[in-house]
Input
Amino acid sequence: MNDIVSHVIFFALAVLAVGSGVLVVTGRNLFHAAMFLGLYLLSIAGYFFLLNADFIGIMQVFVYVGGVVVVLLFGIMLTAQLTNVRLTSAMEQRWVTIVSLVGLVGLLVFVIKDTVFRISALAPVEDTISFIGRMFMTDYILPFEVISVLLLAALIGAVIIAREEGGK
Amino acid sequence: MIPLSYYLILSGVLFAIGMAGVLLRRNAVAVLLSVEIMLNSANLNFVAFSRYIAPEQASGQIFALFVMAVGAAEVAVGLALILMIYRNMQSVNLDQFNIFRW
Output
């Protein structure tokens, strides 16, 4: 891809991601915040496509935009009282938080700026789906099985926690 | 090619935004939304390092998939807990969840 084109895409996605992220955090309407979270997740998926990670990008759209955002919307609607949709957030520790987070970002920029990374010139994996599938079944078989047990345990636990007490 | 440091700085900024949400929002569901922002900025870091440092192994992409699985499980359990607390206390305001305080 042309160098200028990829830079333009990078900064456009950066504006989209930072803008929607700020709107998620500062928005008063929780429903709108969840919608902006969807936009944020889509812009991150755009970065995954830009970084030649097409399978991760597709999974981001499936799992996060299609699944997590919908589940969060259910959660918002189930816990919304009539006056609760438009929330006032107290933000008492606002200045301490903002100062310390700006300090954190400044420290990170300071460290990253002076670090020399050994950039590899090799070509990225072309067929990521079959490559990742093969890795999951060979080198990463133990983490793969552990994560599947974790997902099963989390789903059963979520059902048991959210069930009505005493209800059968 | 875009320098790797651009991706790292961007993901640091996005992480700080999510952290601000976790620290400032008083609604439990809004805190879950902010945690998702932080998880995704970490995922962006994983994939960027995978592309630039070891593009022929794609191990960062595999770790990004693990982070996604843990994030999905976290949302399911977190929302179940919030629904449970909401049923008991009729509120999702974190400042009111202080029944363990003595």
In short: The CA atoms of residues 147 and 153 of chain A lie 10 Å apart.
